[in-house]
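May I ask you to review the protein record following this short note?
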Amino acid sequence: MNNQIREYHPFRGPYDPCPPIGVKTYVVPPNQFIAFQPMNLPQFPLAEALRAGTLWPALYSPYQPRYPRGNP
């Protein structure tokens, strides 16, 4: 499976007043890699599927919060 987290380097002008951000990241959803649903895809067990939010591991995309819990 392809890596879901991609990165790019935004343009930094020589006269930008703000501090530069070197690398920005974004997440590509896993459904962009599957054109149609093939038959007999592996499935999570029911309890794990409820925690993951999907029945199929190929469509699972974990959420990585930007800040730890409790911090703004």
